[in-house]
């Protein structure tokens, strides 16, 4: 068993586990479940945690270079440590379908999918988390899901009306995470849009672009290679060239002799 084989086997089960977690968590928080049903939803979320933890440990064990794998899979560790990040695993399913486009366009399309999906997941999960933290707390003004959802939209867009705000420590921690995520997503979308505009503006206008020094050096090197690969004149060719000039030389000599006469 190698990393690629394991990832193919566990891809869709992990996506299903992510969906199961967000459904169970949403049901538990929005309906404010109590008793056996709440315990059932808690069990579902616990099972998803076990699945993600087992996947992380197995991937680490079968990795060829464990330290390199650990450094390049920090997100997988965060998914295990921070349960509300598990629904972000669903974003990978959005980019499974590939289209026949350029690499730059495919990258921008993927970035847009991830940015839009991240916004939706962050708003939804943070709305649930802040409601779970604030509901019933002394002095809290976020008491139902509609209020927490409105607060999440206002916060992630960095508007901050202030009509709803968290008062508990956990609620404020969720707010910090949501604000940081909103700023990051705005930056990514802005950079992607700017890249698209620059590419469209430069399309079909290559003659107006200024050549760089690197391009000039590359062109000079190509010309030098072409010149070096040209066939060199042979001795026979030189003699042929001299022979071809013989009639003209003879004519000049004849003209000189006629002038003497």
UniProtKB/TrEMBL annotation:
One of its GO terms (biological process) is monoatomic ion transmembrane transport. InterPro entries: K_chnl_dom, VG_K_chnl, Volt_channel_dom_sf. This is Potassium channel family protein. The chain crosses the membrane at residues 9-27, 39-62, 111-133, 145-162, 174-198. The lineage of its organism: Bacteria, Bacillati, Actinomycetota, Actinomycetes, Micrococcales. It comes from Microbacterium sediminicola. It is found in: Membrane. The keyword Transport applies. It holds the Pfam family Ion_trans_2. Gene3D superfamilies: 1.10.287.70, 1.20.5.110, Voltage-gated potassium channels. Chain C. Residues 230-261 are annotated as: Disordered. Signal peptide: none annotated. Residues 241-261 have a biased composition (Low complexity).
